[in-house]
Amino acid sequence: WHNFQSIKDLTEFISLKLLVDFRVYHHGYCFLRCKNHKGKHISQLLILPPVLQRAANSSTKAFSRPLLNINILLLDSLSRHHFYRMLPKTISTFRSLNKNFFKMGQVFDFNLVQAIKGRTWESLQALFAGKAASPFDTFQKPVDLNETFWKFKAYGYETLYIEDMCWLWEWGLVKEQKALKMTAPLSVRAKLFLDAVKRAGIDRVDVSYTSCPILKANKVNDVFHGPDAICYNGFHQHIYLLQYMEYFMSRFSFLQKPAFTFLILDTAHEDTGIRVKQLDQDLARHVNFLANQPNTVSFILSDHGNTYGRFFSASSEAQVEVFHTSLFVIVPDQAAVLLGKSKMRSLHINQHRLVSLLDVHHTLKGLLPSDELIRGQKLKYKVNSDGLLSPVSPNRTCSDIPRIHPNLCICQTYDRPQQNNSYYALFAEFALGHMNRKIQEQQTDTKGPCKKLVAARFDDVKAREVGLNEIIATFSLYVRTYKTTGHTEEGFVFLGFERITPYSIYYSCANPFVDIRLCICNTQAENRDSIADEHHGQLLPPSVIWTNTTSTAVHENCLYLLKRSYSSGVVLAITNVCSEMFYYVHFDFFTKNLYSSCEMPVRVTILPRTETLLVVGIRQVENQPWKYKYNLNYSTQ
């Protein structure tokens, strides 16, 4: 802190030092603090333009035409539909620019943008790395920003990454770059973060640092799930960040130094879907600013829709909306001239083609002045090497986009609705068994808080053939809440799940090692132990309640084989109802006209008070008889 005795001294310091003296380094802001007449400290946030000196030996390479500045605004958790619902002033500004302002430029509105996944981490990986992660990747590796940021740095670009999250908490850039070590001293954490930022090719994070004191003033650690507004000094947090972006772009444009700028706002990441409305007027004004940046191409996009509140679980249409994201590209007149008619025509055509963030990734590379980086490049996915700057195939389907499941295609006829019959009940059984197995694996304590999922019903079944004897089925599986809250080569693959009802209430009782999306537990702490032992010595409740479960004793009164029969197949599971016994089970399954859900034989340890799915057998040929037999052996510990 600098101490000043008068407002005059403070004004001179800001005017003569912070605003013009490049030797006084700052991150684009300062806090002003004083005492009121009651002796209470009052603080104010002041956003400052970056102080830059135009170096005589600038590293920017010489090119025959000016380098285009690239600006990206990512609005987390905002679908295309909800963008139109909640940001009408911004939409009106887009239309006004196209009708009354631009002569050669345009705001392009891409109608068919398919989300890669309903989560930010995978979306950033697609946007910046041009990769689709595995369906079961969590946060094992950092988001690969190098593929984009370092490519632009090689051409002399200054790179800026701004976020509204606090780097001292568990979300945002610090987590995405695997630089999070909550228990370490502050100096160690700062070094981890700065080293990760540098490795990623980010020159500046600047006003991102204001997020920590702003969130602290709002008595939250992050912006997820509330409060209703994030404010400081009577201004929304996003106003400060947008203001700095404008200062930054204006200053770099004046110095004719190319810049790659990125801002992510999490305003829409909350349960009600209402908070994002606060962004509308300020974003509309910001869009007008972007339209007046002659050498800047701006992308306003989202990663996925809202997956947190009651809307997501309200209807199948709401669930599809999550994967229908927004993408607007603002190309001012001068930038349009630099791009040329062919690329502008391609952008116009592609507004009505099926695209994704992978196309945006290659578009960014295509905006560089040389095709050196993309010439001869072998692309893993069916995308143009210059992304949206060339026409996308009109025959593209969701099969051409590496969607990470669970994921719903936004094209209406892609997945075909199916009846909720016994055939698909077997698929539901398989999915349920897989999720319950995950709970057991992640929660080694058999009396842990996260309970076995019990399925009540399933609906909204859709299926799609993807090859010979291969289909992908999706459906909504409804589970009950806890009452106080022949050897074959076939196999089933569990592609993923998403929870469509709110689950944050279970954070208070969940096992930290169990995926919170799987956990249903008792939120009343005083009753947890008694409830855990409620069924001691009895058969566990059946995993599904839409059909009967028969049980056959295998060993004494502890180990039971469970069977559920359907007209289209059979489900076999094993349960250990005793509290002290451990069983090692060897199971083999022989079939005629049945697909087996897993490779045989199955060897599994059955822990006390647990149930494990052994196999789901599903009819191969319709209207033909099927049968099976099995061998089951066990040993005890």
Automatic annotation (TrEMBL):
GO CC annotation, single: extracellular space
Sections of the chain in a coiled coil: none
InterPro entries: Alkaline_phosphatase_core_sf (IPR017850), DUF229 (IPR004245)
Gene3D superfamilies in the record: Alkaline Phosphatase, subunit A
PANTHER family: E2F TRANSCRIPTION FACTOR CC-MB DOMAIN-CONTAINING PROTEIN, FI08016P-RELATED
Protein name: Uncharacterized protein
